[in-house]
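Title: Comparing notes on inverse folding

I've been comparing how different people in this forum approach sequence design from structure. To keep things fair, I'm posting one structure and asking everyone to reply with a full sequence. Here's the target:
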């Protein structure tokens, strides 16, 4: 019996989460330190399932093309930043986050589910106890134009053009950053896993007036003058990952974050690739095991298909073939709930029920398909 192996690559279009506004030190007039909050935004559908903010639980909620405020205390937030009617009817979503805390000095906002994380580090140079927030606007963090910031909405200025700049010495200039593993012509950077083997991620940084470059990814930091390489296991969960790049020169630092998407890969191997049932009497059944190895990065179920077995003159059609898993049998074409994890092994069964046909040697192809579980 011959076998055919099929690799299926599923390329989803996913959206990242953006941290857009931070009230890290409201000041006593706005409720003090128990009234801190963070605003996030997602262009596409994003569910905060199992996510935490600075280690504190966030209520499970889904947003799509909208803002969400994560408040230390939603009731106090409504009192100071809403219309103070004891009902949250401000027109955007808000969740409590188990009394999380933000540092009034240099601090960090970390929203993570243990695999994906969205991080912002801030200083206390802006929005520090003066009633204003810091907002991400036109590619940089700036102080809000007014007291209380703009929770639940984007930054707006109807009075003219708001200009922000920072005057420094000769900060190193980052000219270009490349991830050479980008293998897609889609917008953004997509990295495709390789079945059963690590994927090498190559980062090249072109800069001027610098002494050295630090490239940080996955808790590993490489000191380089041009190029850094990291390896991602093929079974690493698909999703968005960030690389922190710092260019150092003249005792000054210029930092940027570049993100890429590690794509989904449905890939598996099986063994053996040929089964010989030898002689079988008519009316009898025979079964064998087929080993499986998940060489992709998504959970897999499986199905089989066949045009039957033939001796050249007569056909044992596919209705006489069954596939099974964990003692449960079904006709070919049904999806078997294997739930095979990445980088794991399991086995399926194949059964042939021999009908009343003429004697002879019958052979045919059974196709094995991996399906994202």
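Reply #1:
Here's my take.
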């Amino acid at each position: 019996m011959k076998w055919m192996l099929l690799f299926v690559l599923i390329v989803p279009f996913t959206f990242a989460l953006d941290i857009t506004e931070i009230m890290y030190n409201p000041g006593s007039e706005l409720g003090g330190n128990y009234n801190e909050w963070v605003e996030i935004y997602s262009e596409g559908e994003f569910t905060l399932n199992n996510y935490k903010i600075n280690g504190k639980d966030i209520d499970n909620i889904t947003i799509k093309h909208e803002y969400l405020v994560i408040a230390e205390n939603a009731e106090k937030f409504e009192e100071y930043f809403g219309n103070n009617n004891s009902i949250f009817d401000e027109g955007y979503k808000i969740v409590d986050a188990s009394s999380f805390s933000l540092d009034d000095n240099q601090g960090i906002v970390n929203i993570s589910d243990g695999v994906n994380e969205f991080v912002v580090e801030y200083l206390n140079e802006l929005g520090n106890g003066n009633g204003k927030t810091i907002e991400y606007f036109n590619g940089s963090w700036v102080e809000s134009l007014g007291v209380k910031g703009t929770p639940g909405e984007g930054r707006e200025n109807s009075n003219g053009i708001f200009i922000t700049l920072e005057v420094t010495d000769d900060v190193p200039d980052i000219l270009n950053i490349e991830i050479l593993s980008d293998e897609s012509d889609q917008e953004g950077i997509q990295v495709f896993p390789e079945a059963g083997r690590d994927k090498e991620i190559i980062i090249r940084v072109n800069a001027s007036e610098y002494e050295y470059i630090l490239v940080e990814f996955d808790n590993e930091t490489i000191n380089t003058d041009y190029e850094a390489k990291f390896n991602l296991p093929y079974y690493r969960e698909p999703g968005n990952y960030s690389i922190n790049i710092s260019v150092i020169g003249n005792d000054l630092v210029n930092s940027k974050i570049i993100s890429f998407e590690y794509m989904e890969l449905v890939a598996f191997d099986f063994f053996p690739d040929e089964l010989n049932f030898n002689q079988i009497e008519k009316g009898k059944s025979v079964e064998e095991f087929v080993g499986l190895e998940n060489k992709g990065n998504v959970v897999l179920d499986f199905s089989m298909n066949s045009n039957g077995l033939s001796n050249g003159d007569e056909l044992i059609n596919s209705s006489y073939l069954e596939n099974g898993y964990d003692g449960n049998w079904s006709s070919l074409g049904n999806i078997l709930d294997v739930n095979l994890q990445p980088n794991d092994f399991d086995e399926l069964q194949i059964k042939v029920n021999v009908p009343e046909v003429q004697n002879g040697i019958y052979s045919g192809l059974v196709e094995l398909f991996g399906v994202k579980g």
